[in-house]
Amino acid sequence: MSCGEPHETDCREVLAEVYLYLDLECADERRFLIRHHLDECSPCLREYGIEREVKELVARCCGNETAPVELRERLRARLTELVFETDSREYLPD
Questions:
Q1: Are 37 and 7 in contact (CB under 8 A)?
Q2: Which end of the chain is more exposed for a tag (fewer CB within 10 A), N or C?
Q3: Per-residue pLDDT in tens (0 to 9) along the chain, 94 residues
């Protein structure tokens, strides 16, 4: 995804790291870059808001349960694969 505007940090990078950002699992410098990008890119901010709402909904539904480390790693790996698959789609006119 890209909003078409030039940014210091690419939209795809920001969205690929949005869960790390939400979970406070990235370095402070990276958090600053992502926050700066979200402040100036409304499509990414909107996507961030959706992801945050999903995370909050899951937290409410699951209480204080946490997923096993292995499951979280498999999910992150699969989500990363999906991001790359989405980025590599090709438009073929009819």
A1: yes
A2: C
A3: 455 566 677 888 888 888 888 888 888 999 899 888 888 888 888 888 888 888 887 777 777 677 788 988 898 888 877 765 555 555 555 5
Amino acid identity of residue 75, one-letter, is L
Model-level pTM? 0.55
What is the distance between the alpha carbons of residues 1 and 86, in angstroms, rounded to a whole number?
9
Contact 7, 20 (CB under 8 A): no
Who's near 74: CB < 8 A, 6+ residues apart? none
- Give the whole-angstrom CA distance, residue 17 versus residue 63: 24
